[in-house]
């Protein structure tokens, strides 16, 4: 059950990251949201939880770290795509 909750929150974190970066709700790229949300959730959430000493328990720091990680990855992915397109 925890794994399903983490996947769902990762997807939401990816969507929120795209909204923060200026996309409208109908323009969200859900494939990118899923990938960046899950990776950002894993990296950002885990890093911030471990840095604050909460370990693997579910705390607000992990949730904030998840959104920040997804935000960073979404921004980096968009930057990389724009630089390749010319």
TrEMBL record:
Keywords: Membrane, Transmembrane, Transmembrane helix. It comes from the Bacteria. The chain crosses the membrane at residues 33-51, 58-80. This is Putative membrane protein YeaQ/YmgE (Transglycosylase-associated protein family). It comes from Nocardioides albus. The lineage of its organism: Bacteria, Bacillati, Actinomycetota, Actinomycetes, Propionibacteriales.
